[in-house]
Each structure stands twice: as C-alpha cells, then as structure tokens.
C-alpha cells in the first residue's frame, strides 16, 4: 500500500478481506490509514450488506467507482446513504472510491476503500491508478491461499468445507463438500465431539466403507473439514469400529450389545478380535490407543454399516 500511497494522495483507506470462513458477508481489515475503528467496522459489515453502491460494485461493475460515478452513472446519491451521512462524512470525508477485488477465476476476495477530504483529489487518474493495483490486492486479500496450497496435495476425490465457530458451513472454492460433509447430522456430530480427544474421526457409509474426516484449525475459530475415503485401518471391520468407539466411551459389553442390538457374547468376541488387531492387552489400553491412533468412529456413524463382514 505504500507504493499506491506515493502515487495518489488520499486521506483515508481500508483494505478489507472477505472472511469467507465465517459463512457470512463480514470482512476483516488487513491494512488501514485514516479510518477510525468504528468506520472500519462499518465498512466491513453494514456497508457490505446494505449499501446500494456496494451492491452495484459487487454484482455489476468490474472496476472502481467514486461517489460521483455512482451519482452520474447509476443514479445512486452516495452522499445521502447512511454510510456517508453517519460514518464517512462525520469522519471528514467528502468523496471516495471503492473497488471490489477478484482473482483471475472471478472469485471475490475483498475490497479497497479510499476516501478524500477534498473532492478535487478524486480524479480520473487516481481511479485508474487504483484499478491498476487490482490483481496484487486481490491476491493479498485471498484468505484461502494458504489453505488451498494444502488442499492441492489432497486427492481429487477428497471433499473439503469450512465451518465457523457458529456452526455455519461454507464451500471451499474448487472443491465439493460431498454428501457426507453436506449432511447436517454429520456437522452436528462434529460440533458435539470433544475435539480435545481427537482431530480426526472415522465415518462409515451404509455400505460399510470407511471415510476419514479431519478437523484442521484455520484462521481464528474457523475449522477446515477434509473428508476422504480410506481403507479400514488395522484391518478393522465397520462393526469392530463401532464397538471400539463404544469401548472408548467406557461402555460395558452388555451396554454395547444393547446399543447395537447384538448379544454381549458377540460383543465379547469382537472385543477379543480388536485387542488382537491393535496389539492391546486391556480395554483401557484399547480406549487410549483408539484416541491416539485416530480410530474413533463418529457417533452419527454408529449402526449405519451392516456389511456381512461387519457382523
């Protein structure tokens, strides 16, 4: 921004990135000068959601617009909007420009807001210079860039989503959520899981196939979910994975049998097989190993798998 600052005079600016992980319209300030905190908060929230000028910029115009451009070309008297009357003008600004930032593939990443105290400084040349910085500023506002580098290493069949602390789920650009991450029950289950115990879980399909769901902490309290098909670890069957989960939860054989509608004797046989496969000597050791080795089956997957090999 220092280079741009040397090319054009301004009295205030804010470079705002869309915080896609929140699942809302909210933005965050990456850099700012001359904008008080309450003005930054407004530009990152209510301005994006409610201002008619921003709506035009976001949906219909591929370049920067000043207040005078909005009045002349779009019949929007920006100076009479609540953003101007309640925030920008009281801060001493009489003219300004906003430019929405998009990557070459069209994905929106954020916006640049520039403000002047003298309208004469909002020249056509200033607007052209601002627009010349669009590519580099769009990349700077791409909060997904670091995550996408990691996603590129995943196989083509992997599904990815972002979940905010409030529980809203958002697509990762270029990746599908897939049917599992799109299932509201799975999301509720992940939120309920004590994530201090594990960051990766197993999930069983109705066909008895194994999927791994990984929770990857991202910015702030946003979490990236990665789901992909894997082979059952350690040669476990889907039924054994169910029983292992319930053993880790501290349930007895009769309790497990009641939960899965099988006899305690059948549960005991499965537990013996699991102890052998995981090279454990006791149920306590088995429970600890299940957590340490990321072998916990998600609660919503219990009872889903009924393959012949699982019985």
Automatic annotation (TrEMBL):
SMART domains: HTH_LUXR (SM00421). This is Regulatory protein, luxR family. The keyword Transferase does not apply. It comes from Micromonospora inyonensis. One of its GO terms (molecular function) is DNA binding. Gene3D superfamilies: Winged helix-like DNA-binding domain superfamily/Winged helix DNA-binding domain (1.10.10.10). The keyword Secreted does not apply. It holds the Pfam family GerE. Residues 229-294 form the HTH luxR-type domain. Transmembrane segments: none annotated. GO terms for biological process: regulation of DNA-templated transcription. Keywords: DNA-binding, Transcription, Transcription regulation.
């Amino acid at each position: 921004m220092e280079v741009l600052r040397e090319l054009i005079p301004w009295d205030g600016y804010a470079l705002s990135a869309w915080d896609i992980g929140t699942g809302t319209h909210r933005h965050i300030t990456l850099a700012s000068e001359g904008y008080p905190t309450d003005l930054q908060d407004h530009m990152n929230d209510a301005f994006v959601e409610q201002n008619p000028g921003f709506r035009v910029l976001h949906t219909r115009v591929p370049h920067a617009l000043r207040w005078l451009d909005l009045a002349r070309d779009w019949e929007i008297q920006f100076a009479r909007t609540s953003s101007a009357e309640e925030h920008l003008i009281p801060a001493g600004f009489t003219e300004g420009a906003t430019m929405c930032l998009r990557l070459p593939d069209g994905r929106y990443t954020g916006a640049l807001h520039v403000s002047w105290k003298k309208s004469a400084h909002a020249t056509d040349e200033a607007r052209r210079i601002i627009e010349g910085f669009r590519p580099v500023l769009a990349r700077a506002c791409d909060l997904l860039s670091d995550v996408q580098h990691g996603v590129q290493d995943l196989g083509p069949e992997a599904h990815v989503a972002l979940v905010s602390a409030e529980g809203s789920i958002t697509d990762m650009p270029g990746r599908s959520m897939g049917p599992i991450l799109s299932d509201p029950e799975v999301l509720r289950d992940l939120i309920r899981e004590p994530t201090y115990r594990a960051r990766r879980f197993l999930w069983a399909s109705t066909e008895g196939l194994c999927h791994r769901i990984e929770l990857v902490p991202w910015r702030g309290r946003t979490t990236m979910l990665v789901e992909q098909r894997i082979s059952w670890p350690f040669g476990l069957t889907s039924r054994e994975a169910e029983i292992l989960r319930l053993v880790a939860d501290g349930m007895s054989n009769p309790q497990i049998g009641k939960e899965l509608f099988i006899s305690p004797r059948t549960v005991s046989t499965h537990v013996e097989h699991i102890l052998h496969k995981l090279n454990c000597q006791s149920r306590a050791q088995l429970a600890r190993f299940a957590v340490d080795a990321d072998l916990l089956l998600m609660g919503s997957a219990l009872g889903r798998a009924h393959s012949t090999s699982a019985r």
